Known about the structure:
- By secondary structure, the chain is mainly alpha-helical.
- The chain has one domain (28-173).
- Helices cover 74% and strands 0% of the residues.
- The chain contains 7 helices and no strands.
- The chain is globular, with a radius of gyration of 21 Å.
Amino acid sequence: MTAQNEPVDSPETAEQDQALEIVKPTIDLDAANAQAEQIIKRQVKWAAAAAIVPIPLLDLAALATVQVKMIKNIAQCYGADASESSLKPLVASLLGTLGAAGISGGLLGSSAKVVPVTGTILGSIGFAAFGSAATYALGRVFASHFASGGTLENFSASAASSRLKAEYQKARTE
Length: 174
């Protein structure tokens, strides 16, 4: 009998299934959720700190770095893989769904820094508020996605945009 003609429930298939179950890491969802929340809280602080970068647009790059690192770390909590090269365009796409108010807060805050002293101070405050809220929202969206067994391959930015907006507004009001 060839392997193609072997019945599906043969002893060899059952042994292979058991071996695969042993290899699969089991995730303690409560522990992963708690760890993801800690990562989000820590990275929100780093996002606010990115606002003190005095050079316009360099602060946006610093914020993007914080957000990509956060998502990579959240993915690891849930045993998922996340590469930087696939996260950068995804983060940019998601932030674009925040609409004019969210984007203008980030860009205006960053570009206001070209005005000495008051522009830098006001720009930093506006950018810190935007960056913190956007980072929190991204973290919550990705933590929820990974907690439900999702991967980057099956993540849909368009499907997540309404949740991202809701989380962003929640962060802005807190």
